[in-house]
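Follow-up to my earlier ticket, as requested here are the two runs.
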Amino acid sequence: MNRNDKKAKRDYISTHIDTSKARLKDDEVDFLCEFIDEYDEKYKGQSRTHRSSYDGWSSDGKYTRKEETIYTFSDDIGIHEEYSYHDDDGQSGCQSRDITDARGILNWFKKHKD
């Protein structure tokens, strides 16, 4: 891809997602362009849930933690992540974040290949 093509594609991407501080390879630029073009029909409104469980140790002894992370492709281009956990000893917590930058979206897809 020549410099002018890459700049034009990067400008297109930056109208939809944050590309500041992101150094993008040619294949990443192509992927993000395709992601943006297909977002409404392929991703928007879709969710994925990841559940896991593991045993751990604390000063009170052994506990089992159950975790759930829900990834939802929001109305605006990006991924909303909701994480929650519940321990069998009564501890629980949750947090959420929005992934709306180019590098964050690319890293999410690398981590969640299937």
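Run two:
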Amino acid sequence: MNRLLLPILLFIGISLQAQEQLIDPIAYFDFFNKEHSALAQKNMEYLQYAVHSDDLNVIAEKRLALLEQVQSAQAKVAQVPAIANDAGLKETMTEVLDTYAELFEIGFQEVETLKIESQESFEQMERYLAAQTASEERMATASGKLLAAQRRFASSNNISLMEDPNGASEAEQLNALNEYQRDVFLRSFRVSKLNANFLVATEQGDAKALENLRQQMLKAAQEELPVLQAKPAYNGSTAYRDAIIEQISILKDLAENDYPAVVKAVGKGDQLTQADVNAYNQAMSKVNQLLNPAAQKVNTALQNLLRTNVPKPALRGVKQI
């Protein structure tokens, strides 16, 4: 009985079989499996880095390196003749690689362009993450097609696949994680951006505009908190969600109980009393004392969420029946 204990989406560096050796279904399957596995691992690294890093030059370098790897795989796959009982595996692999090439050449480049200004407003951040998600969904769809083709090939060649119970491709698992994290993040970003705008506006002396921002911030926090509190855990983990809830709760408290004193002080201009000054300083001291630790807690919880939910291979191994 022949055995191949290679996960579909885990890269293991083994030299390519000679073309004449790929007549064997297991070796044929193994060839396409390894080519896609190498791309899958690098793609995971790129997607996580692209979202959580602000170094656009390095992000672009990683994307272009992935594009080169895709083009290399395209050339290798093109040289391999399909075996008699291919069941569409080579054709699907070719289509998947074509999709990857287009995404890394055009799709994700457009996403990187949107990232440049994503911090400027909630709407721009929302637009950037929507574009990122759309490109990732195309990756997941392509990956899912290959997984389906591998199952057809296995069925046609009497190969038994040992599959993960959830049956999702690695890209699909990664997208589910990203979708959860981004939904939580956007709710936090909406409130945090209004807070940042409020703090900048304190230097401009427009009390009316400042009060408008304070009210927007309070309203946003009041809207987002119950949604987040009702959001379920991700694979049993609530730490990231709870850290965001704590952060927004602090911002809500500031907007409701401390920032009115800031607005009042700005509105009075040179007519400040000592009580006004004390209230203003107390509010700013609270900002400095609470927000940085809350942000650090969010970052730590995010890293733990990503670390403990690394996508697992959809296929754990195969065996010839």
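The only thing I checked on run two: The CA atoms of residues 19 and 80 lie 6 Å apart. Let me know what else you need.
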